[in-house]
């Protein structure tokens, strides 16, 4: 049921049960805040979201104020603005002014709110209180307690979302600080989410630390390939004007991964395997086709693959569960009537990896098993059928189990050139093409190309078009 109220002399409709901050944000009205987050419980401890409610003697926190009919609220009155300046002065009392070396600079909520609502000059004349700098909270996360404003977002995340209960706030008053609740490392399969949750530069990625300024980067919408959940992510690449051009400089790459809020699939969260996707994509890979283990040109490799397919009496295809729906459609349309298709999982769980949980992680470590099975069924490869040629699509090492057959292998991270593989064709990564996956629930999630593929690496769809000619 809609509730009508007035904010800054503008009548809006709020949903029953919303708080004032939620209603204002939904209508494009900015109320600054630090501790509030839509997916976490209300802490109400930063006091940055104070607003004036006509008829009440004191300013009220918008994050913990339920909407009510005919409520009249002011967010920019003189007393509200004065309260914001005072809150910012209090928060910055001991906060170091080291924005020049802080990785959060450029996307720091504290910077933004100080610029919009804070005083231009500090009134403080006392020395700042010094605390731990770049303390290793875990091998993945560094904690700078001097920059922490005790919003408690990270603490609430470990208690309410990941369930690890790994973080807490210890001591009292000006001596309070965030710390692990035990002497063990911050071992949480979702720990990297606290980096994005932190409104300041207190929690920093050890992997991204001092690697690049965020204003040199731009996000590209992509999909995590770590499991069948198919979480939405942003892959951050250099903007074109900031790409290194000198000889010997690093080639274009993805510098970091962040969660892309998708309420239908993963919400605002991502597991650590997803945060590591850019490093997974950087592992060593073949960049040139090979014929029986010897380097070859793309033209020669495609010609040999066509010849083998034409000569085969009973060819088979092992379909990749990392293929996009668009690639699967091309394959089915062009080769579906000529070869027998089998499905499999390209990637199996690694030793020590979280197999499955109730939040995001799925036991199937492939992004598009649903899309594959919807098009090709669920039959596993049968070596007794008598196939004489197998087109292996995707990551695969168990070639001995295929029997005495000719092999055409299309893979991104295939083994080193092997004389037992007749044609080895390197194909593009998810970051080098566009398309979509269907997750275990059948929800389709699209991704865009982030980087250009190497010259002799082919898109799988183009290989199938060539084989069909």
List descriptors.
seven-stranded mixed sheet, alpha+beta, 20% strand, 22 strands, 469 residues
Spatial arrangement of strands, main beta sheet: 15-14-20-19-18-16-17
- Low-pLDDT stretches: none
Q: Distance N terminus to C terminus?
A: 60 Å
Helix count? 11
Number of distinct beta strands: 22
CA-based gyration radius:
27 Å
Proportion of β residues? Answer: 15-25%
Structural class: alpha+beta
The description of the largest β-sheet is: 7 strands, mixed
From the spread of the alpha carbons, the general shape counts as: elongated
- Helix share, percent: 10-25%
Query: Average pLDDT across residues?
Result: 93
Notes on the protein architecture:
By secondary structure, the protein is of the alpha+beta class. It contains 11 helices and 22 strands. It starts with a strand and ends with a helix. The relative contact order is 0.10.
């Amino acid at each position: 049921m809609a509730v009508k109220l007035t904010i800054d002399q503008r009548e809006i409709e709020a949903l029953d049960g919303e708080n004032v901050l939620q209603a204002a944000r939904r209508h494009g009205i900015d109320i600054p805040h630090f501790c509030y987050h839509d997916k976490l419980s209300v802490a109400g401890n930063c006091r940055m979201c104070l607003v004036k409610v006509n008829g009440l003697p004191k300013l009220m926190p918008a994050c913990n104020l339920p909407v009510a009919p005919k409520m009249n609220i002011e967010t920019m009155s003189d007393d509200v603005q004065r309260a914001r300046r005072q809150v910012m002065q209090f928060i910055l009392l001991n906060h170091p002014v080291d924005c020049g070396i802080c990785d959060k600079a450029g996307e720091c909520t504290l910077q933004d709110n100080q610029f919009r609502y804070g005083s231009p000059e500090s009134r403080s004349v006392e020395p700042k209180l010094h605390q731990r700098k770049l303390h290793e909270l875990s091998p993945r996360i560094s904690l700078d307690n001097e920059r922490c404003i005790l919003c408690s977002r990270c603490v609430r995340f470990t208690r309410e979302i990941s369930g690890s209960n790994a973080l807490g706030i210890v001591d009292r008053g000006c001596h309070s600080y965030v710390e692990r609740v035990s002497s063990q490392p911050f071992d949480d399969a979702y720990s990297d989410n606290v980096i994005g949750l932190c409104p300041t530069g207190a929690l920093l990625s050890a992997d991204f630390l001092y690697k690049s300024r965020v204003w040199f980067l731009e996000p590209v919408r992509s999909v995590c390939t770590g499991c069948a959940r198919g979480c939405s992510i942003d892959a951050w690449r250099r903007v074109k004007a900031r790409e290194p051009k000198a000889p010997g400089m690093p080639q274009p790459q993805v510098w970091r991964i962040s969660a892309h809020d998708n309420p239908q699939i993963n919400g605002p969260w991502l597991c650590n395997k997803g945060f590591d996707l850019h490093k997974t994509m950087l592992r060593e890979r073949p960049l040139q086709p090979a014929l029986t283990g010897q380097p070859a040109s793309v033209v020669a490799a495609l010609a040999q693959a066509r010849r083998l397919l034409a000569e085969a009496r009973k060819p088979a295809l092992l379909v990749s569960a990392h293929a996009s729906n668009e690639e699967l459609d091309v394959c089915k349309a062009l080769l579906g009537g000529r070869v027998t298709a089998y499905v499999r999982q390209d990637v199996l769980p690694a030793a020590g990896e979280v197999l499955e949980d109730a939040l995001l992680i799925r036991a199937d470590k492939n992004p598009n098993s649903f899309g594959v099975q919807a098009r090709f069924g669920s039959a596993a490869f049968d070596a007794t059928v008598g196939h004489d040629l197998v087109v292996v699509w995707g990551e695969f090492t168990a070639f001995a189990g295929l029997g005495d057959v000719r092999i055409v292998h299309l893979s991104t991270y295939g083994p080193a050139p092997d004389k037992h593989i007749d044609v080895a064709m390197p194909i593009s990564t998810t970051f080098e093409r566009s398309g979509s996956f269907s997750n275990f629930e059948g929800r389709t999630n699209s991704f865009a190309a982030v980087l250009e593929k190497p010259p002799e690496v082919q898109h799988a769809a183009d290989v199938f078009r060539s084989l069909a000619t």
